[in-house]
Amino acid sequence: MFDIQEIRSQFSILNREVNGKPLVYLDNAATSQKPNSVLEVWNEYYTELNANVHRGIHTLSQLATEEMELSRRKIQKFINAKNDFEVIFTKGTTEGLNLISYILTSKLKQGDEIIISYLEHHSNIVPWQLLCDRTGAKLRVIPIDENGILQLDYLDQFLSEKTKVVSVNQVSNALGIVNPIEEIIAKTRANSNAYIVIDGAQSAPHFSIDVQALDCDFFVFSGHKMYAPMGTGILYGKQEILEDLPPFHGGGEMIAVCSFDGTTYAGLPFKYEAGTPNVGGNIALGAAVDFMNKIGHQNIQNHENALLDYAQKQLLKIDGLKVYGENANRTGVVSFNLEGVGISSDVGMILDKMGVAVRTGHHCTQPIMDFFNIAGTVRASFAVYNTFEEIDLLAEGVKKAQRMLS
Ligand code: 7TS
């Protein structure tokens, strides 16, 4: 049974008012709210368990280590990784993508190519540009059509023995478009020896993920977009690839032996987890996975898709409203502008006065905005706790903004 009121009751913040109106939180693609169960686990860690991990003989250190490793195994199951040591704790998707692009440096040379897409977040663009600067490799970008859909015939043209990396997101944060990553992975495997990187920042909160079925080499996501605290994230990498590549950060806990004559590295996952991790956050990420599992992936997806359909229908009733990616396969995001209203942030400010939180602007995806020749959009993004009544309030607010601004 999917009981939306029961789910909402687990999020204390949803009871608060903003500007004298009940909060309508529709900025979930930026970060989701956190259920009480996750906050309690986080709080419990600091009140009952706080100690550094993997380095203490004392009881608290051992208990904290056990809890964090239990969380790692929950996440392993969540993405169906073959081994728990293929699951690396990071502080988010940005760190994961920077880590991967850094450790691949020695594998690329002048003339090699990296393929990304027009739909990428800046954090799946800039790290690859930096890698190109370091190695002389070249970036190739899969274009989109006017619906925001990737033009995969370009991928066919781009793929060759020069392709060393293909890195794309599963879901676009700016438009909510679900990309055909299965097809992208199959084409890449068939036509190159490239490393395949999937940015799952906007898919892990909404879909069931199976990294073995996908057969990607890396899969990265952020905990804070899927009901866990900020400063948490996951890098999944295939065992043989992570074993072959060099470390990212050097420091404590990532060595086997350290001496001035030379240092050898610890095995996985510790080789990639130098320094004190975000222990409380990492344990709370396991609680966020429990929260999602309890509701069930199919229930989450069905509810969010119903919200998306309803939102698109209600918003498109408004004269002069354009939804970007209207005809594409999407999840959980409506990105739009009002004709004659130049600045999306004006709409966002009026919505905020009505308690409705959305994001406006370029959403860290300037190439998409350039493609549509706009400065930004208004973006409403949904989570499992959102309701149809909240979408009515959004539509009402947009109509009010249109009256005020035109
Ligand atoms: N990749 C995608 C697809 C994203 O949506 C984001 C964040 C990132 C990478 C970076 O994640 P971080 O957790 O390291 O910041 N996207 C957004 C957004 O849409 N609004 O705020 C952050």
UniProtKB/TrEMBL annotation:
Keyword Transcription regulation tagged: no
Residue ranges of every copy of the Aminotransferase class V domain listed in the record: 24-394
EC annotation from Swiss-Prot or TrEMBL: 2.8.1.7
Residues making up the signal peptide according to the UniProt record: none
Cited CDD domains: SufS_like
Domain of life of the source: Bacteria
InterPro entries: Aminotrans_V_dom (IPR000192), Aminotrans_V_PyrdxlP_BS (IPR020578), Cys_dSase_SufS (IPR010970), PyrdxlP-dep_Trfase (IPR015424), PyrdxlP-dep_Trfase_major (IPR015421), PyrdxlP-dep_Trfase_small (IPR015422)
Record's keyword terms, sorted: Pyridoxal phosphate, Transferase
NCBIfam families in alphabetical order: sufS
Function: Catalyzes the removal of elemental sulfur and selenium atoms from L-cysteine, L-cystine, L-selenocysteine, and L-selenocystine to produce L-alanine.
Name this polypeptide is given: Cysteine desulfurase
